[in-house]
Amino acid sequence: MLRTVLRSGGALLKNTQLTNQRLRLAPAQQRWASSLPMNTVVLFVPQQEAWVVERMGRFHRILEPGLNFLIPVLDRIRYVQSLKEIVIDVPEQSAVSLDNVTLQIDGVLYLRILDPLKASYGVEDPEYAVTQLAQTTMRSELGKLTLDKVFRERESLNHNIVNSINQAAEDWGIKCLRYEIKDIHVPPRVKESMQMQVEAERRKRATVLESEGQREAAINVAEGCKQSQILASEGEKAEQINQAAGEAQAILAKAEAKSRAIKLLSEALAEQNGGAAASLSVAEQYVAAFSNLAKESNTLLLPANTSDITGMVTQAMSIYSTLAKPSGRLQALPSGTSEKQSQAPPSPSMSSQ
Description:
By secondary structure, the protein is an alpha+beta fold. About 55% of the residues lie in helices and about 20% in strands. The chain contains nine helices and ten strands. It has helices spanning about 1-25, 115-120, 125-140, 145-150, 155-170, 190-270, 275-295, 310-325, 340-345, and strands at about 40-45, 50-55, 60-65, 65-70, 75-80, 85-95, 100-115, 175-185, 300-305, 350. Helix 7 (about 275-295) crosses helix 8 (about 310-325). The protein is rod-shaped. It starts with a helix and ends with a strand. Residues about 1-35 and about 325-353 have low confidence and may be disordered.
């Protein structure tokens, strides 16, 4: 019995030393873990924790949350595993990219223990093992990418690191939920080069945008000129069409008016005393024509007997009578006028003012 107690005390002391060593190595990673409880026969296991019990140094069972009973001295709680999601800070480390740029990178690892038995007996320190695996996987994945792709493909990089950790940690009963890169530090010279590259890219985009704006402005001006010319030509075409239509309507109206005037004149001549009225009108027009000759031109064409007004009226009436007869022969002529004189107009004499 004493040997058993001493052996249990030695194992407890060894477990306490191991726990203290783990706390010294990674204090931030052990915040979730509880201290190993003593066997008080009646035990209350908290929710989301798994207590691994050994009986006489051999795995016996895993205590469920709630009330549990153990045999004193024989049973001993060997491991306490938390089933909550665990957050582990991955320390900053240096990595070389594909284009030989040294980077300082750190991250955050999120994992959960799925099998407390494997997590207890599959690896000595699961948190430390997962942290080292995350660091080595991160260096390996960064070596496959160039510096520009590291910033653009952070999501794919995180996904690849999670897959690599899950493949290795499957035997440990641990599942990596996600991995996030916190900070990426580049050398100062590389940072200056990247800044110059960004500025050059922005100037290039500004120049391209300005040229595109000028091109669109020129296209808009050309389209405006084209549309204005088209509208002007269409307006001129419509104006000419309207003008032609107006002139045609005016000609038709004049023709209709002239036709109606001729018709009314013929009807008036057919009435009684129509011939006398026509003779009077012709005489008035004849005299008015001679009165307007001196107003319109310096050259005058006058008949030989301009002083004989009665003879001029008689001659005009004889011309009208000749045109009015369809047979073309004169039946009645004024006294003192022969047929030859009625048919031929008087020979004018030219005088110039």
